From TrEMBL:
Binding site for FAD: 163, 187-189, 201, 226-227
Coiled-coil region list: none
Record's protein name: proline dehydrogenase
Organism in which the protein naturally occurs: Streptomyces flaveus
Catalytic activity: L-proline + a quinone = (S)-1-pyrroline-5-carboxylate + a quinol + H(+)
Length: 308
């Protein structure tokens, strides 16, 4: 029951100010956020690469209020790509992008977000890598899929994310699988109502398996975004059944979660990508990680009480 309460708090400005300013927050945040600057994140990328892992880098932030913030976000990604160019990591380091950070929710936001994301996709292609568009709350998705389709005309490797908890997602998966797209499937991390999304964990897991099957049997490149051991085993079984080789799909997990499992799968020959978030505007991302696992919240609350 705690999850929805935390997700509601993730949209509260008052909570944002309170949690962001509390000094005791830092050690808990550091488990999930790989630093505040490009200089912080580069050694993390190198360390993950040394462990045989790939990365998807996310400059944290969302729900901005001015066009200037959206261009600043674009420039932060362009600076990151410039840094990565020198490391020679090629496609081992891709970018994940939230379109609301690029202005999608502002007036005229669809065009603004497309104009901001295009140079990032171009710069990523220049250094031999690509961009995946994250899925945010369901009201943003028609615009996200339209931007994805537009970008794929010039950059077919551009990926997108679909969320198993939404009723619409099986149809989206069919369309994307037939188009040969790179698609990350996740359970879904936002607060959605029963009119658009499954609420029951078992229902979400069942939908995830149905969608996984569509993607694995389709023409595209499935990216399995989950830490759930059952879904990882089902993916491996489906891959065997449909004859997908180890480089025909990949597992993706979040930085700070099940690190040993990430290394174990990579050692077995799987491609494993670690979604690595960094930056100063970490509040929304951090609160979604707390909501996913109540034990994280208990740990966080304990450190607030004992040290605060
Ligand atoms: C690479 C990646 C990208 C993502 N991108 C998006 C996106 O674009 N849009 C979106 O809505 N959601 C996104 N998510 C989040 C996703 O929707 C889920 O909320 C999240 O992955 C938890 O679901 P799970 O599949 O790991 O299964 P769960 O059943 O939630 O977790 C399975 C097990 O993993 C571990 N675990 C999971 N989460 C945590 C945590 N926070 N802290 C500690 N342990 C944990 C626990 O051991 C748990 O028992 C992404 C997830 C991943 C892995």
């Amino acid at each position: 029951m705690l999850g929805p309460v935390i997700l509601a708090a993730s949209r509260s400005d008052r909570m944002r100010r309170l949690v962001s300013a509390a000094p005791v927050t830092k050690p808990v945040v550091e488990r999930f956020i790989a630093g505040e600057t490009v200089d912080d994140v580069v050694p993390v990328v190198k360390h993950l690469a040394d462990r045989g892992l790939e990365v998807s880098l996310d400059v944290v932030g969302e729900d901005i209020t001015t066009p200037e913030q959206s261009t600043a976000a674009r420039d932060a990604y362009l600076r990151l790509i410039d840094h990565l160019e020198g490391l020679g990591l090629g496609e081992r380091a891709e970018m994940s992008v939230k379109l609301t950070l690029f202005g999608q929710a502002l007036p005229g936001g669809h065009e603004l977000a497309l104009a901001n994301v295009r140079p990032v996709v171009e710069a990523a292609a220049r250094i031999g890598t690509t961009v995946t568009l994250d899925a945010e709350d369901h009201t943003t998705l028609d615009s996200m899929f339209a931007i994805h389709e537009e970008l794929r005309k010039d950059f077919p490797q551009t990926g997108c994310v679909i969320q198993a908890y939404l009723f619409r997602t099986e149809a989206d998966a069919r369309r994307l699988a037939a188009n040969g797209s790179r698609v990350r499937i996740v359970k879904g991390a936002y607060k959605e109502t029963a009119s658009v999304a499954y609420q029951d964990k078992a229902e979400i897991d069942k939908a995830y398996v149905r969608i996984l099957k569509i993607l694995m049997e389709g023409e595209g490149y499935p990216m399995i975004g989950s830490h759930d051991p059952r879904l990882i085993a089902i993916t491996q079984e489906l891959a065997r059944r449909v004859g997908r080789k180890l480089d025909d799909y990949e597992f993706q997990m979040l930085y700070g979660i099940r690190g040993e499992e990430q290394t174990r799968l990579a050692a077995e020959g799987h491609r494993v990508r670690v979604y690595t978030a960094y930056g100063t505007d970490w509040y929304g991302y951090f609160m979604r990680r707390l909501a996913e696992k109540p034990a994280n919240l208990r740990f966080f609350a304990r450190s607030m009480i004992t040290k605060g």
